[in-house]
Amino acid sequence: MHTVPEANETAISAVTHLHEILQQPRNRHLQIHLSLRQLIRALQMHAVGASLHRYIRDSCLSEFLPAPTRRAFELLLQQAGIPDDSTTRHAPSASPSQQLRSTAIEHDALHHVPNVVFFDNEAQEAIMAQMKQELDLGHHLLLQGNQVRSPSLSST
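Given the sequence above, the corresponding structure tokens read:
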């Protein structure tokens, strides 16, 4: 059973209204589908401080939608009571990289952690911070890495 920790009633009613709006026949041409699981995850992420508007937009991959469809989807979000709060939200006190670096690794075998040099990349750090929030909520993540096999490592 999924639970939504400390979700406020406004966010729950807005997400419910958005789901109803997307199910209406006049909006089916948008081909945007949000499952109950995606809506619950959006509310869970909103409860821990993530932007509800941005999380729903990212769940629908709206940046890849054609411009007219994206504008129609933004209007539907506003009609549902989920305004774009990216300009009104306060900036976090620490950058995502500082928040991630402050997290202690609680593992006995620290020698298994590679010493990799990372460069500051704000977009990557924001994604990593979101992934940490999702892990803290108990969500499972599928991480895929580079699948190219180096010729020097292949055994003959």
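The longest helix spans residues 9-23. Try to locate this feature in the token string yourself.
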